[in-house]
Amino acid sequence: MEARAQGYPARSVFKLQEIDRRMRLFRPGQNVLDLGAAPGSWSLFASQRVGPGGHVYAIDLKPIQQVFGENVVVLEGDALSLSSEVLAAHAPYDVVMSDMAPNTSGSKFQDQARSTELFLRALEVAMAHGKPGSHFTAKIFMSGDFKSAETDVRKAYESVRTIRPEGTRNVSTEVFVVGMGKKG
Q: How many angstroms separate the CA atoms of 157 and 155, rounded?
């Protein structure tokens, strides 16, 4: 079924649903941080999974038009440069997730490098503001830097898996790295 028919603004929700089905990211009552949240599909899905006792903090540069329930707070800003105080105000988080992708430039090398930068920033936020035992998932484009980025996640989480959701287009190099159980 199409995402819009199910009430979601984008098909990216199917990727998160698959990751959640395979890894069990969400539970009722959790505190979730969604980096690069526009157009809002991931935040909407997470808000449904964490229920009224949980909260989702959705951050993006772009305005998010999606209408959410009371358990979602939208923060407009750059996830790469958002102050630690703003992020810490709602921390600690049980799940930090990122579907951020660079604006493509046409240069595969440049796009992959920017994707890795976004991924590492999301990991940095998860390390600083995720509670012990928390989970992390973020998109990254496969590149020469991938193994190094994945190793950084392995150092910080008990269990790590790389997932290429079924809904990913054949020509795409995107995968999602999932870290379960933040150490310490």
A: 6
Residue 72 has phi, psi (to 5 degrees) of: -120, 130
* Residue 147 amino acid letter: K
Give 88's contacts (C-beta < 8 A, 6+ positions apart): 128, 129
Sole residue written with tokens 């305005």: 63
Long-range contacts of 65-72 (CB under 8 A, 24+ apart): 65/9, 65/39, 65/40, 66/9, 66/39, 66/40, 66/41, 68/40, 68/43, 68/44, 71/47, 72/43, 72/44, 72/47
pTM of the model: 0.93
Rounded CA-CA distance 16/46 in Å is 9
Q: Is 108 a catalytic residue?
A: no
Contact 129, 93 (CB under 8 A): yes
- Per the residue annotation, which of 15, 108, 139, 183 is the catalytic one? 139
pLDDT digits (tens, 9 = 90+) for 156-178: 999 999 999 997 888 888 999 99
Backbone angles phi, psi at 73, to 5 degrees: -115, 125
Domains of the chain: 4-182 (3.40.50.150)
